[in-house]
Queue: 4 jobs
Job 1
Amino acid sequence: MAAAPKSPDDFQLALDRIAAHLQQDAGADAQQAAAMTVVLMLQSTQLPANLAVITERLAALLDSSQPVVQRNAAAALSACLEASDSSVASCLEHTVTQRAVTLLSSGSSLDTPLELNLLVLLGTLAEASEATLQLLLDAGGAEQVLHRASPQHSPQLQEAAVDSLCKLAASGPAAKDVAAAAGAVPKLAALLAASSTSSDAAEISVRALLCLGMLVSDSPERQVELAYAPGAVAAVLHFIRKSDDGDCQQIAAGLFKELATNAAAKDAITAALKEQQAAEAALRFL
């Protein structure tokens, strides 16, 4: 194994060598291996580097006909965005956000690992800068992420989608408004209700609770929308009372407090409490 670069100049030189294998004529095997090498190199050192050229070439690889190349390019782009501002500028110049959303919108033709990496990439773009966030929203990225936040998809896709939605919601009021307008509150409520009955969905549950908390905070309208979403209040109560996860309990309690202080949500909360009390009473006779 080659020794790790010890200086910024050595690191930049090593990255430049890898970049040669990301060119269009390098071949799929070399491209996918080089993209994964970029990920590993960026994860293993904090040395600064100019990633503009690598980002440009990775952006072009999103259009590859080989899913494994696209998959690794998406993962490498996320790593580049987290490592250097030069990558953010290059992503803007080479339409990475638009390419990623377009690719994700191709739907059932995508393989699951590629979908997962694209969801991570969109979440990273949402956090990277105001410009990449706005491009994501304008291109319909929130809608594409929300589409995967559904019980009909695999748990891995659900978790990745809700994680990206959390990053979107944390990016500011504009992103929350777009996500809410696209139906994020009832979608996440349905996902939360489904995850409350599964012992293997802890990460989905805590992320859904966290995202809902961000979306309904300081928004009475969204609080009411959540309160009246089928199964939502019952699911929140479940995580307060029965969850073994302290994070879930704490976030669920905060979310319930938001709903309980909204007078317009009172009837929905009262109905859910009565339904739960009736169910618990019935269990005592079984």
Note: The two ends are 64 Å apart (CA to CA).
Job 2
Amino acid sequence: MTNPYLPPSHSDRDVHWHAYIERCCGAPGVHSTRDERLAQQPEETFRTPEGAAEWVGAMVAAYARKDEVRLIGPMGGVGQVGDPDHVMHERRESLVILLRGDSHYVDFRGETGRVHLWVEAVTPDECKEDIVHDGDDQ
């Protein structure tokens, strides 16, 4: 039974996720639409929010330009985009969103331009019959 005082979860919404990656060098803000992405074969599909969050972290680790950044907060210091702490942060933040059954979008600077990660929450009715779900996490 669903608790009326808690937000809906991914299982309440009966969703799974289609993951897409876009690399672009063009004008900022130019990217595909959700409908365009859902019409394509996804890079990966996921049945669990944990699997989708792991994918986001792995893509940030693999494709982020390793710029040095100053850390804010009481500890301060210096970090690097795509370092293990940043990847852990991305996984954790992604999981919070995905556990609700929502879509999640991440954008960052890659070595040759912007990288957009799209993790689309998809209901069975939205899922096209010709989409291959090979490699689904379970």
Note: Strands lie at 16-24, 44-46, 68-70, 78-80, 104-110, 113-122.
Job 3
Amino acid sequence: MATNDLEGQNAALRFCRSVYEFARLRRMLSDEVWTNKEEEDGFKEQFEPGIIAFAAELRGITSVPRAANLYTVKLYLSAFEFIRTDLMQLYEKMQGANPTTELQKAMSTIELQQFFLTRSMDHWEFDNDYYHPNNWELPCLEGIPKEHKWWNKELGITNNNESDHASDFDWTE
């Protein structure tokens, strides 16, 4: 059973990374989402069962977040936000109908885990690892929208929405 749990958690982690990259790149590229009809049909058919299966594995990957894994936690937060916003909007547009009860429950689970991780990060400010996260976990941040405020420090955005970086190029526009 533990092997299946571990396999499910690893699949959920890979899924988070894939969602993060897909949605991040989609924001940077043209409005053309799919390269062919097969991709579009695959997304339409697999989105709901995939999200429901993903939500079932979330507690395993978010159960004991550590400050040293700050960048991975932030990647999860962005993936969850992309699922709840970008991908859900894309799916609803393609379906032309409201989400099923099962999909709504899965989205609620994702939102709850997003809240849990955000609250966990709020308590890490006093943890030494918070100031020395695993740098190898830092993903590419191009295409990350300003609404993903958990990346503000890495993007050089201060509380005044001013950029600390010499370059004020906005990848989301």
Note: The first helix runs from residue 2 to 28.
Job 4
Amino acid sequence: MKEDIFLKIIDDPYFSVLVKEKHVGSGVSRSYFYSIVRELRKLKVLEENALAFKVIVPYKFDNNCIRIISDKLLFLSNQHIGFTMILDEKPACFDCRLMTECVYGLKIVSKELRIKRDSTLPHSSWIQMVAEIANRIRNNSSDAQIIINNN
């Protein structure tokens, strides 16, 4: 998914709509809720009001090539959004207040996608993990669908 669209859907109000089944509690009006639902369906993120992905990694065009961005990820676990991740450019793992959640997320992704981790630093492990997901998409070794939208 294009990076700008990825950033849009992991932020409110899109993310609120993504995690709610009904407009109640989403923080948006009913009509705006269903407008966002229609847009998420067009993006193939929702299908029949259910989440329609396992992993979303953003990309951007760079010199007429698609470059997958390795510091962002949206992951689905047990039909619920497991987590969203945007890494800082400079790793500060040992000072990060989200270290526990970060390591837990790493364990979930590596287990569910059967990706071996080589690094002990979470930041490096995430970069490695997204790179492996990108390799699988490129090699078509998993049920991956590359959606290139012109929005």
Note: The chain has a mean pLDDT of 81.
